[in-house]
Amino acid sequence: MSKSPAKARRTASLALAATAATAALTLALVTSASATDGAGAGAPRAGRAAAAAPSVSGSPEAAFSRITVFYGAYIDAVYDGDGTRAKQLRAAYLSAPLQRELAKWEETNHADGVLRAQNVPLEWKVVYVDSGMGKTNADVTLTWGGSDTTRLHVQADLKTRKILSITG
Prior knowledge:
By secondary structure, the protein is of the alpha+beta class. The chain has helices at residues 5-38, 63-79, 83-93, 96-109; strands at residues 123-132, 135-145, 148-157, 163-167.
């Protein structure tokens, strides 16, 4: 039995569509595999679920945001060996009494008073604790390598948004 011309065209059309769909799917899989297997840090690898993209947010009006911004920028400046920038950050974010207190602490301990160490942490994390009595409180965890950490308690004034104390 021979096929009608309309059936032949339909069969050819379906075959062409199936071939195009297979090619598109193959291209998508190859592109996806090469993008994830060859990408930099943070990219999903074959067989692993994709993690949510990192996110950072804040507000110039929030004392807690100021603590997080200060620690991130300060650690970057010290890591980069930019003492001038580190001093500028201290002047901008730390209260005058705290700056004097840190100078005394540093003279006694021969270490950086903001970091409570002679070296620079590899990671940092700031966690909101609470706010009250005109102040906000945060815990800063500095990670030096492996599981070696230092935990600091940092307090900032809600009105001036200046950091008032660093203990730990």
